[in-house]
């Protein structure tokens, strides 16, 4: 899908180097919650960290918050010990957070560390405003500690900090309601317990009677994002419906560009990921050797990795859904039983594929995995190329055109002449990615159905034994490794 105008403007400003005089470039985490020195790069003003529960997303946010000196309005600073406290159940030692930060044209590398019982390096941290918005905002107001006393008799509303018009309009846009007013209020018994209060039409109501999404959005907007701040948001989509999630990301993109904000957020939402470019998405994967931070993943990759609806024995990684269909039809034509044992996962950019290939080469996946790059890519360690030495669309279309599109008309239920004409006309377009949609529109069929028919016909009529074996054998080898271990009794 096309990116929103807000994201495109943010991309343009970032590429021009026209802002962000303060930025956190990367961090490395050692000795904290299973991290062993993996690097997390921040290559876009908004970064979405995605992964399963317990994969380390919150640890990244807390580590990023730890590396800056950020006194609050009362002059009180927070330290790594506030985010990673020793408890009666565990104590942190031999821990290091190594980081690279930029101020103006200067880049420096520093560390915050805890070799034994105390954190070191706190006075040397750079100054920067940090806004950490954690999951406390997701609690219902009535369930929060200390808020029950606000419901007692005699308690009155105190100061109300109304949202300025721009912030009010942003809240209305995100939630999809026409708010007359909104803001944060305190009471005469507690000046520190803030409650969101909004008005729609003639009805004014507080967080005690608001939906969770309204509360979450209002409290996100209530935070004062100062220029060049680092903003950290845990589970940004919590309690928001999909449309509101998309609107929130677009709103964050707009204010990030206006105020040179660097925003790092965690999410499990495909809607959040779809709003952001590939360089803004990082997936945290657990492997045999520890965690891996994979930059540039697709939303499909992330969602497939986190969904256990299927129970495959082997993961097969391909660049996009079209490559997945090509592989699927090759397997179906050659050894159909393999399809029930594998999961095809589109990963997005070819750079993600090369990173996954290195993991596969090092046996760092928790189960057998095969990584394919499109045929027009260069050979890369741990990766295999799809047949044809070109992009899947060009391989399939050119191959079938050379044999006059056999059986395609029957597969899609259209007349032979109109089918051949639509397919030939689509190939006139300069961009091969548009061929499927162009032909499908002329034939009035679904583009996915047409592509599946083309791939099935190509596998039957055009591919050679060598073409098919170049795909199937790698999958078979991975699965035979499982079968060998079963025979040895290790599974």
What does this structure look like?
There is one protein chain. It is built from 16 helices and 18 strands. Strand 15 (314-318), helix 9 and strand 16 (342-346) form a beta-alpha-beta unit. It is globular. It is an alpha/beta fold and 491 residues long. The longest helix is centred in the last third of the chain and has 23 residues, at 465-487. 37% of the residues lie in helices and 22% in strands. It has 4 domains: 5-129 and 226-281, P-loop containing nucleotide triphosphate hydrolases (Rossmann fold, 3-Layer(aba) Sandwich), CATH 3.40.50.300; 149-221, no CATH class; 310-387 and 464-487, 3-Layer(aba) Sandwich (Rossmann fold); 392-461, no CATH class.
Descriptive key words:
491 residues, alpha/beta, Rossmann fold, six-stranded mixed sheet, 18 strands, globular, disordered C terminus
